[in-house]
TrEMBL record:
It comes from Lysobacter korlensis. This is RNA polymerase sigma factor. Residues 13-79, 110-158 form the RNA polymerase sigma-70 region domain. InterPro entries: RNA_pol_sigma-70-like, RNA_pol_sigma-70_dom, RNA_pol_sigma70_ECF_CS, RNA_pol_sigma70_r2, RNA_pol_sigma70_r4, RNA_pol_sigma_r2, RNA_pol_sigma_r3/r4-like, WH-like_DNA-bd_sf. The lineage of its organism: Bacteria, Pseudomonadati, Pseudomonadota, Gammaproteobacteria, Lysobacterales. Keywords: DNA-binding, Sigma factor, Transcription, Transcription regulation. Gene3D superfamilies: 1.10.1740.10, Winged helix-like DNA-binding domain superfamily/Winged helix DNA-binding domain. Transmembrane segments: none annotated. Belongs to the sigma-70 factor family. ECF subfamily.
Length: 168
């Protein structure tokens, strides 16, 4: 394509693209699809330089005809027959309890490998949601002991979970 052809194509675009776009929006009701069809129409004009040599009215008629044919071809295509266009998401993904159950089994299995003392403070603090002071009162041990057992118990739990491929 020569520089003069490129200038003619640019002029063709500037002169006719907005009108072709409005026409395609009128036909389809879809602004994004209209942009795609106008782009394809102008691409076909670029591939057929003889369009650039036509009069302005002939070029415009050619562009409208190509755009109309692209709309018709799009509607007839198998893809269009199977596509459902909607503005809303059909449904949200429902939560499945399967993953949670499997994770709880893995955690329970890992907890069973801990000592009774470590397991007790972890269950009270993390699963029952108690504070260090409440855990100490429930288990009748000093708060410092609860903190220490939590630290070493969590370390052992992390290792047990790593062995099961749950954490890094």
């Amino acid at each position: 394509m020569t520089d003069s052809d490129a200038r003619l194509l640019r002029a063709l675009h500037d002169e006719h693209a907005p009108a072709v776009w409005r026409y395609v929006v009128h036909l389809t009701g879809d602004r994004a699809l209209a942009e795609d069809i106008v782009q394809e129409t102008l691409l076909r004009a670029w591939r057929h330089p003889s369009v650039l040599d036509q009069s302005e009215q002939s070029a415009r008629a050619w562009l409208f005809t190509v755009a109309r044919n692209l709309v018709i071809d799009g509607r007839r295509s198998a893809r269009a027959a199977h596509e459902i266009v909607t503005d809303t998401v059909p449904e949200e993904r429902s939560t499945d309890a399967t993953d949670a159950i499997l994770e709880s089994w893995i955690v329970a299995d890992a907890l069973s490998t801990l000592s009774v003392d470590h397991r007790a403070v972890i269950v009270h603090a993390y699963f029952a949601g108690r504070t260090v002071a409440e855990t100490a009162e429930q288990l009748q041990i000093p708060e410092g002991t609860v903190k220490s057992r939590l630290h070493y118990g969590m370390r052992a739990l992390r290792l047990a979970l790593q062995e099961r491929g749950v954490t890094r």
